[in-house]
Amino acid sequence: MKILADYHTHTKYSHGKGTIEENVQVAISKGIEVLGISDHGYQHLTYGIKKDDIFKMREEVDYLNEKYKDKIKILLGVECNILDDKGNIDINEKMRGVLDYVMAGYHFGSMPKNIRGLFNHVDNYIIRSSKSKDYNTLAVINAMKNNDIFVITHPGDKGDVYIEEIAKVAKETKTRLEINSSHRFLNASQLKEIKNIGNTFIVGSDAHISENVGNFTKALETIKESDLDLSLIENIKF
Ligand SMILES: [Zn+2]
Ligand SMILES: [Zn+2]
Q1: How far is the CA of 215 from the centre of ligand 2 (A)?
Q2: pLDDT for the residue 238
Q3: Domain boundaries, the chain
Q4: Least confident window among 92-101, 111-120, 187-196, 199-208
Q5: Cα 98 to ligand 1 centre (Å)
Q6: What's the Rg (C-alpha) of the chain?
Q7: Nearest 5 degrees, angle CA 16-CA 200-CA 138?
Q8: Ligand found nearest the CA of 157
Q9: Which residues contact 126 (CB under 8 A, 6 or more apart)?
Q10: pLDDT, tens digit (0-9, with 9 covering 90-100), for 113-127
C-alpha cells in the first residue's frame, strides 16, 4: 500500500508532542507524498491552538516546503471544532485565508455556544440519549452544508450520529468522511451501513507523536472488516 497523503497530524501548537519539522521528517521516511498539519481549532478549553499561531504556522510550513521541496509537499490545515447544531465551526475569514484546507469534528472540550450545547456535551458524556444523537447528527450535517470542509474527522466518536444521513449529505456537499486510525471512527459497522451510498473517504493517522504520522494500521483493519470499495478512499493506493 502507498500512502499518498496523511492530512490529520498534530504538533506542539495544540496538544501533539512533535514539531512540524519532526512530522515532516517522519512522513518523508515513510514515503508519504503529501503531509497535512492539522492542529485543533482555538475554541477548545484545553488543547486548541492560540488563534494567532496559525500565521506563524503558515510561515513555518512555507519555509519547510522550500527546504524539503524535492521530497514532500506540506499543507497547512486545521481540525476545527463543530460547535453547535447550526454547524458553526471555530474559524474566521482571516485564518481561512492562510489555510490550505479545513477539517472539522466533534470534541468534548469544545466551548459550547449556549446552554443547549453545554447540555449536549453532558448528554454525550453521561446519558447518550437519542436527543443527543439527533443534535450531533444535525451539527455535522449543518457544518458540511454551511462551510467548505475537506474532511469530517472521526464521525460518531464521543457523540453518536445517524451515519447514513451524514454520508448522504457528505456525498451532496463533496465532503470526505474520515476513517480515523487513532479513534477508530468511522468503525466497521458504520462503514457497512454506508458503503453503498457513494460518498468518499480519507484515512487519517491523527498522530499526536511524530512517529505515528502515516500509521494507518487500525484504520486498515477497520476497512478490511467492512469490505469497503477501496477506490472510494482518496489518499491510499493499493
Ligand atoms: Zn479530533
Ligand atoms: Zn485530531
Answers
A1: 13
A2: 85
A3: 2-237
A4: 111-120
A5: 21
A6: 17
A7: 75
A8: 1
A9: none
A10: 999 999 999 999 999
* Dist. CA 2–CA 93, nearest whole Å: 35
| Cα 151 to ligand 2 centre (Å) | 11
Q: From the CA of 59, how far away is ligand 2's center (Å)? A: 22
Closest among 164, 209, 153 to 191, alpha carbons compared: 164
Nearest ligand to the CA of 158 is: 1
From the CA of 154, the nearest ligand is 1
Q: What CATH class has 2-237?
A: alpha beta
Q: How many CA atoms lie within 13 A of 58 on its CB side?
A: 13
Q: How many angstroms separate the alpha carbon of residue 101 from the centre of ligand 1?
A: 15
**Ligand 2 ion local residues (Cβ < 5 A):** 79, 206
80 in Cβ contact with 102 (< 8 Å): yes
Which pLDDT band holds residue 145 (cuts at 50, 70, 90)?
A: very high
Report pLDDT digits (tens) over 168-181: 999 999 999 999 99
pLDDT tens digits, residue range 37-94? Answer: 999 999 999 999 999 999 999 999 999 999 999 999 999 999 999 999 999 999 999 9
Task: Dig out the grid coordinates for 233 from the structure.
Answer: 478512499
Q: Which of 34, 80, 82, 86 lies closest to 61, judged by CA?
A: 34
Q: What is the mean pLDDT of the chain?
A: 97
Query: What is the CA(25)–ligand 1 centre distance, in A?
Result: 23
